[in-house]
Amino acid sequence: MDPQQPGPPPQQQQQPGPYSQPGQYPPPPPHAAPYPEQWGAPPPHPQQWGAPAPYPVQYAYREPRIIPAPPGTPFHRLARTPKHAWWRPIVGTLLLGAFVLFLTTGVVVAWTIVHRVVAGPFPTPSGSDIFPSDTENLAVTLVMLGILTPCVGLAAWVVQRRPFWSVASVLNKIRWRWLLLCCVPALGYLALSYAMGLLVDAIFPPDDAIGNDGGSWIGFGAFVVPALVILFLVPFQSAAEEFIFRGWLIQAVGAYGPDNPNGRARWLRTVFRSPWPGIVIGGAAFVSAHGYTGWAMADVFLFAITVGWLTVRTGGLEAGIALHALNNLLAFMLPAATGQLSGWDEQGGAPWTLLVSDIPCLAFYAFAITWLARRQQVARVS
């Protein structure tokens, strides 16, 4: 550039003038691109900012059908969910009774048909037996009881509209690791029970001892079939009884405990909020479902009360299932090994020494389970 030629005049810096109100916004240019349809409705023009925008669409909230108990709920009150109504435990109990009647009858009919097809016709045995074989009679009875476990969960799910496995524990499931751990104190209970029985019988010889008369080993060939039946079916039978008497009944009674302990008849509210009404009612129903009399009935009731308390104390049925299953396995295996399986359904009385010898054994099991539950930090509430 020639230095002699003048350059462009310097630009003068504009000074800000006084503030003035802005005028109306100009209308959009006619050549503006259309608003894409996939974006929804175009935003309002600034001239329309004074008009309120349309309210967003409201979606209706649909309450879930199955609602668990609130957090912090103990085992005996797991049926006290937001869906609870006074009639639900009653209708659920009636439905459970219908399941028992229908399914047990169906098992007997189906078993009889299969037996006739496979083995041919058979004469009707005398008494309460259905089939001529003692092992077969035991097997069909254990199956009739074992299939009731899912019926309890189904009644809770359909009628009370709570989780299917909420009858099992506060975590709405069977805690398998805890169940296996409970088998260790249960084995200790059996060993202590045997030792206490020998000690008490030595001090106070019973006049009407219950059980077998000694018997003798029948041999492996005759023992293996009933042993397999007992080993595979007794745990299901024991678990079903725990689900009904320590699960459903305790929770059905506990559902009537009021949420607020204050108010009219405060002592009655406090009683029904505790687990003891359900434990006692469940224990009485458990005794009535068996054929024991006298001191044997008292011993069975003590067993039911202890296991019911442990169920609430540990937040689940696992401790009761472990003790019930191992005790029944031993009770069935001994007659099967000595050829006395024909009397598997014979219950009745027992000497008072049975109750005396069983008290320290149940105390040991209760102490061992509570100590183990603290060590394992087992959940007691939901």
TrEMBL record:
A GO BP annotation: proteolysis
Protein's UniProt name: CPBP family intramembrane metalloprotease
GO-annotated molecular function: endopeptidase activity; metallopeptidase activity
Record-annotated CAAX prenyl protease 2/Lysostaphin resistance protein A-like domain positions: 226-330
Segments traversing the membrane: 90-118, 138-158, 178-204, 216-236, 271-289, 295-312, 319-338, 350-373
Superkingdom of the organism of origin: Bacteria
Chain residue ranges for the region called Disordered: 1-48
Organism: Kribbella jiaozuonensis
InterPro entries recorded: Rce1/LyrA-like_dom
Biased composition (Pro residues): 1-11, 24-33
Segments of skewed composition (Low complexity): 12-23
Keywords, in A-Z order: Hydrolase, Membrane, Metalloprotease, Protease, Transmembrane, Transmembrane helix
